[in-house]
Specification:
CATH superfamily of the largest domain: MFS general substrate transporter like domains
Shape: elongated
Number of helices: 26
Distance between the termini: 19 Å
Structural class: alpha+beta
Length: about 650
């Protein structure tokens, strides 16, 4: 039933018929708009995406094999059972020398400190591809060499060197995939990358079950990295975003050609020059404003940007500590160590299945915060539950939750940081997270002192991460920022009205509106008249607002041939002419926690001392629902967004 109302209330602002993302798709030529135009099933984007996901499988082998290769820690020489074929047995690392075994486990994190800063910055300057391929090849080669180590010192040095290049892979391969795929495909990053990681993680258990000598274990685990690096050299391109940002026209043209796949209706090559020119114009404008002058200069200028970096750094460090600590002590739990290790890997699978859906449904900030909170509660549960199976169940829930959070932080950080500094920022986060990874090396010793001691630290670290995540901006559904200025704009807009309200809305149907009009003493014919006119509302963000000013909006209400236009700021009263020809005092306010937009208005003269009228707007299943104030029954009018 089509209905239209002529109530004396102010309604929301006018926007273009398309949403902001749709508008940018149609009228703005950007790297994301090009990638999005090919959809989520473009064969070439999928090829790059899956190839990058497989990197997580190859790198899981050398990262996880050390858990079995080292063997059980022996802190005293008496009553200690050595693990056959282990590094501890081979190099006799027991008693006073047992600390060397722990160093062998964690020393790669020292290499991460160097690689996460130098290689990630190199990735921003020289490209994701060269850093990824060289790091992958050297990670495998150093692993092969370490399998021939004559003593623990040579082995530790080679593990240290591997740490440099493992962080180079982590900071470049995820970014390369993210910058080379459509926004829709990015939503599946945590699922696909996570599942591939689990495959590599779990395969380490049968590998070490059948290959019992540590030298052979490490040799077999390292070879896939060498082979895949050679394959990637001939098949993987530079990321699309980086190529556009750095004026690599030939690379961009190859991207166009591959994505077109020979289709006649694909995007035209002539567009490449315009795309790069558009980006260079934005880049030059940013440089005039001090953008792109260096990462640390940007951090100094943009304090909110610095806060985001510090928060994500801690969250990443916390995740690294908890996640690494869990897999290191998994082989010390009661039961078969190979099955325990595999089960902790399998526990991650549900996390990667639900993460993409919940990231979109809950948003990045809420999902990451809730998962850290669940991690904390799970490990608190293991402290107070005495039943072995129940305690292990809480342990697995904690592993599930931290896996969700750890993968989600890759997604989150890739969307918070701008293109020009993305790898550098992720590298700094990884640099700081190395301290968490290094601290996880002591988890085995903590476990010897008390099985509950690691759980206390896990719970505390995760709880603090849950709270700090609330300081970050929401990035769901937003294009990747290319500069810190865009990060600031997103921050400013996140404090304003939700973009879901923006657009043109037309009345579709109502609930109890006739009863409402009758209660207001409207006659039959006037009530019928309200049904015959078309009613629409529109909210639109005002362009060109100064960066430091609060966001402004335009509101348009059309009832038949009558139209009103207002411009307003949230929570700031203004005077506007209404449909009855009189001035009204109007205030729009938005509650971000409840997602409700309220419109409060009253006649400016208010000669009868009436109370203000308050209308509430809420998005309900893609409809905008307007609630009318009434004490006896609920009155709603539903608006459908114009396509």
């Amino acid at each position: 039933m089509q209905n239209n109302d002529l109530h004396n209330e102010s309604e929301a602002k006018l926007l273009p018929a398309e949403s902001p993302s749709e508008k940018s798709e149609k009228f703005e030529l950007t790297s994301d708009s090009v990638l999005n135009s090919y959809g989520n099933r473009n064969a070439y984007q999928l090829f790059v995406f899956i190839s990058m996901a497989l990197c997580w499988c190859w790198t899981a082998f050398p990262a996880m094999v050390i858990t079995f290769a080292v063997g059980d820690i022996c802190m005293n020489k008496t009553g200690c059972k050595l693990t056959p074929g282990s590094i501890i047995e081979d190099f006799h690392l027991i008693g006073a020398d047992s600390y060397k075994a722990e160093i062998a486990i964690t020393i790669s994190t020292i290499g991460n400190l160097f690689g996460s800063t130098v290689l990630s910055r190199l990735s921003d300057m020289k490209g994701r591809r060269p850093v990824l391929i060289s790091s992958l090849f050297l990670l495998g080669l150093l692993g092969v060499l370490s399998s021939f180590s004559p003593n623990i010192y040579v082995f530790a040095f080679l593990r240290l060197s591997q740490g440099v290049f493992s962080s180079g892979i982590a900071s470049s391969n995820w970014v390369l995939a993210y910058e080379s795929t459509s926004m829709g495909l990015r939503s599946y990053s945590s699922l696909v990358f996570g599942l591939v990681w689990v495959v590599g993680y779990v395969l380490v258990a049968p590998l070490c079950y059948y290959v019992t000598y540590w030298r052979h274990q490490i040799l077999v685990a390292s070879l896939p990295c060498v082979i895949s690096a050679i394959v990637y050299y001939f098949t993987i391109p530079e990321s699309f975003h980086f190529a556009v940002s750095n004026n690599q026209k030939e690379t961009v043209k190859r991207w166009y050609s591959k994505m077109n796949g020979g289709r006649e209706n694909g995007r035209k090559m002539e567009e490449v020059d315009f795309l790069i020119e558009e980006h260079l114009n934005d880049k030059n404008a940013n440089e005039k404003d001090g953008e792109n002058s260096g990462l640390f200069s940007a951090l100094w200028r943009k304090k909110s940007f610095l806060v985001y970096l510090l928060v994500i750094s801690y969250v990443w460090s916390s995740d690294s500590f908890v996640y690494s600590g869990l897999y290191l002590i998994s082989t010390t739990l009661a039961g078969n160590k190979f099955w325990n290790f595999a089960l902790t890997g399998f526990a991650e699978i549900p996390s990667y299945i639900v993460s993409p859906y919940l990231l979109e449904k809950m948003g990045r900030r809420a999902f990451v915060s809730v998962m850290h909170l669940l991690t904390s509660l799970a490990f608190i549960g293991t402290i107070f539950i005495d039943h072995e199976n129940a305690s292990f169940g809480c342990w697995l829930i904690g592993k599930f939750a931290i896996s969700c959070a750890y993968t989600a932080i890759f997604v989150y950080s890739s969307e918070v940081f701008p293109t020009v500094y993305r790898s550098g920022c992720i590298g700094i986060c990884m640099f700081i997270s190395c301290f968490g990874g290094a601290a996880s090396g002591s988890v085995r010793s903590m476990n010897v002192v008390s099985p509950n001691l690691p759980n206390i630290f896990f719970a505390g670290a995760a709880l603090l991460a849950a709270l700090l995540t609330l300081l970050l901006p929401e990035t769901r559904g937003k294009q990747l920022p290319d500069s810190t200025a865009e990060v600031e704009v997103e921050k400013r807009e996140s404090a304003g009205l939700s973009k879901r309200f923006l657009g043109n809305w037309t009345v579709a149907y109502d609930e109890n509106f006739d009863e409402y009009l009758y209660a207001q003493e409207y006659g039959y014919f006037l009530r019928r008249l309200f049904r015959m006119v078309t009613i629409s509302k529109s909210f639109q963000a005002v362009k060109g607002t100064n960066e430091r000013d609060p966001p402004k909006y335009k509101y348009k209400l059309r009832v038949g041939s009558h139209t009103i236009n207002w411009e307003f700021e949230l929570d700031k009263e203004f005077i506007g002419e209404y449909l009855d020809g009189n001035n009204h005092n109007v205030t729009f306010s938005y509650d971000n926690s409840t997602k409700i937009l309220r419109e409060t208005q009253i006649a400016s003269d208010n000669q009868y001392n009436l109370k203000p009228t308050v209308f509430e707007y809420r998005i309900v299943k893609k409809m905008m629902r307007m609630k009318f104030p009434h004490d006896q029954f609920k009155v709603y009018k539903y608006f459908k967004k114009d396509e």
